[in-house]
Specification:
6-stranded antiparallel β-barrel; Thrombin, subunit H; 12 strands; 27% strand; 264 residues; single chain; elongated; 6-stranded antiparallel beta barrel; alpha+beta
């Protein structure tokens, strides 16, 4: 049995790719010999993440402005008619505030630069697909979903291995599953866990597969497979500040969304 699973994983790895853009990297996998499924946020910046980052930049800017005003007030007080001992203490305080403000400003500039980079759309010509053997290919076709965090693309390769689709809602709680992808740039990484359950997001009604198999940055867009190598989901996210709670979009959503390209 162990050898069978090893063989299944080896085959699944050949069907899984890394996707690199100027914004970062993610994963994807061949759903048929011609097309690769991934997350839309691997190709296009996630709007929720952009909004979160913009709010953080705005909030930090307001705090920075307040600190600069305090610094200006202390400088003004330093020039007033006060005793020398008080002046020494204020000078020490001003020096400390200047250092803190510089560090805060550097962090703010870093966040602002990230936000501006996220706002810039990625051109199809900037998308690079890296196969399991390390070969690199330019994206030849790209389509983004308007309904889900999904995208489909193609590269100029011949008869690529691909993953077979698992039956809808066939996973059972506690069943062993595997994720494949390139977390933090580590290509061809495999992690395992169990299927935790079917979930529905309350705010939009979208369905997800929950697993405790690690889904880290770079894993997004990679496949969630069973021990037979059938793909059941597209790894998409984890809950912030938690461990062992990851989610995948059901593979049926990709087949429904891109039915004209994924017809079996």
């Amino acid at each position: 049995m162990a050898q069978e699973v090893t063989d299944v994983i080896a085959k699944a790895r050949k069907s899984t790719v890394s996707i690199v853009t100027p914004k970062g990297s993610g994963s994807g996998f061949f759903i048929n010999p011609n097309y690769i499924i991934t997350n839309k946020h691997v190709i296009k910046s996630d709007q929720e993440e952009m909004d979160r980052l913009k709010n953080e930049v705005d909030s930090r800017q307001k705090l920075l402005d307040l600190e600069k005003k305090k610094l200006a007030d202390w400088k003004k007080k330093l020039k007033s008619n006060i005793d020398e001992n008080s002046k020494k203490q204020i000078k020490i305080l001003i020096g400390k505030m200047k250092g803190e403000i510089k560090d805060f400003e550097d962090k703010l500039n870093e966040l602002a630069a990230r936000y501006e980079a996220m706002r810039k759309p990625v051109a199809q010509s900037e998308i690079k697909v890296i196969m399991e053997d390390g070969s690199e290919h330019a994206c030849q076709y790209l389509k983004l979903s308007s309904n889900n965090d999904l995208a489909i693309l193609s590269v100029d390769v011949y008869d690529s291995p691909f993953l077979l689709r698992g039956e809808d809602r066939s996973l059972k709680q506690g069943q062993k599953v595997y994720t494949l992808g390139s977390p933090v740039g580590l290509r061809n990484t495999v992690t395992s866990g169990v299927f935790s359950g079917y979930r529905v997001r309350e705010d939009n009604g979208r369905k997800y597969l929950q697993t405790d198999a690690p889904i880290n940055p770079g894993n997004s867009g990679g496949p969630l497979i069973d021990e037979q190598g059938r793909v059941h989901g597209i790894n998409t996210m984890i809950l912030r500040n938690t461990e062992g709670i990851g989610f995948a979009i059901p593979i049926s959503a990709a087949f429904d969304e891109f039915s004209e390209l994924t017809a079996e």
